[in-house]
Structures are given as C-alpha cells and as structure tokens.
Amino acid sequence: MLDLILVSFLQGIIEWLPISSEGFTTLLLNYFGYSFKEGVDIALFLHLGTLLASLSFFKKEIFSFLKLEKKKLLSFVVLSGVITSILGLPFYLFLKNISFDKHLGQILIGSALIITGILQLKRKEKGERDFEDVNNQVAFLVGLAQAFSVFPGISRSGITTIMLNFKGFNIKNSLKLSFLVGIIPIFGAQLFTGIQEGFFLDPKYLILVFVSFLVGRITIGYLLKVAKKINFGKFCLFFGFLNIILVLFI
C-alpha cells in the first residue's frame, strides 16, 4: 500500500509538468514489481485525482463554460476533446489488451520520453495568439496531438503545449489551454474504464485518488509557474536514455 501511496503522491506533483506523469508513474510501478498493464491501469486511474484538482483550480473557467460566457473557447475545448477521444480510443484499447513484457514496456516508455524531450526542446517562449484566436483547425490539431499521449511517456501537456506553441500561442496560454482540453478525454477515459471493468470503490483506491487530488491541488499553482519558466526537454531526454540503459545493461 505504501508503494501505491508514493506513486499517488508523485502523480499529484508531476501531472503539472510536461514530462508525462503516466510514463513516470508506470515506470515506478514496474520497478515496484507491477506488470506493464497493471502499471498503466493504476497510472490512468490516479489521473482521476489530478483531474479533480484541475477542475478545482480552473473552476472560474469551468463556470464560465457552464454559463456559456466563452462560447468560442468552450467550442475549442469540446471539439479537441471529442477528437482526442475518437482517435485515442483505438490506441487505448490496444494498450489495454496487449501484454507487453515489462522490460519491453520500459524500453518503449523510455523511447517515448526521448520523443517528448526532443519536442520540448523545440518550444518557443513567445507567441501572439490569445484565447480568442482558437479555431476549429487548432482544435483538430491539438486533439490529434493529444491522442498520442495515450501511450505512457508521451506527455499530454507537453505535446499539446508544443502544438499550440507552434500555432502561435505563448507558453503561458498554451499551458492553460492544454489543461482545459484535457478535461474531457481524461474524464472520458475514467468513465469508459469504469463501465468496461467496474468502478474502483475499494476504500484503498479511493485513498489513492484522494492523495493525488490533495497533493495535486496544493502543487498545481506553483508547478504551472515552474513549467512556464523551465524547459523540461533535457530532463525527459536524460530519464528516457537512463531508463533504456538500466533495462539493457543492468
């Protein structure tokens, strides 16, 4: 139980950084003795806690959506989320139904972290576009990019931030938009898994969600500021190569 609490604590911290929380938590669970599939399942489940933390942090934006005050932004969030759900579902089902050898899974996650790192190094700090400049084309591209983050090691916030950055949004606006567009697919993945496999109502799992929520809610404001200022590309590259080396040579 202590190992799962540690992973939940970690989820609450690194979810707000563009380094793939799913990748790192899955790797940690693998080193704790869980299989690749078990690690992915638990990592995805822990996103429920940080999703709730995100909803709490962005409550003003959520309420404005419910009041239809920002229709253009709402349309962008919904469209990108729906595209991610449609395109990401086949990949998600593939991961759920294939049995990766644990070591092969670790190598694949390490490789995905390297890809995330390379993308992060290409980000630009400046951009002229604001929230009112979102459109259907950007929504499609962001939704498409986000679909690839189903695989552990491809950072959801990282890949969507980079896509928005490439389309002319600065890092600050890109990060905020990134977390808003993640609400629908993360909630959808939790709902789909719950319907398909049953909802986790065991008090042990509810404690894990609470830990990731509590830690996530405490850290989100500070770590989003950190993510704006620091490029984590080299961090992802280092841990990606380190993980592959550990698997192959140790």
Explain what the structure shows.
- The chain has one domain (2-249).
- Helices cover 78% and strands 0% of the residues.
- The chain has 12 helices and no strands.
- The radius of gyration is 17 Å and the shape is globular.
- It starts with a helix and ends with a helix.
Secondary structure blueprint with pairings:
Elements: H1 2-14, H2 21-31, H3 36-57, H4 59-66, H5 71-97, H6 102-121, H7 136-147, H8 156-166, H9 171-181, H10 183-197, H11 203-229, H12 233-249
Helix pairs in contact: 1-2, 1-3, 1-11, 2-3, 3-10, 3-11, 5-7, 5-10, 6-12, 7-8, 8-9
Care to give the gist of this entry?
This protein is an all-alpha fold and 250 residues long. It has one domain (2-249).
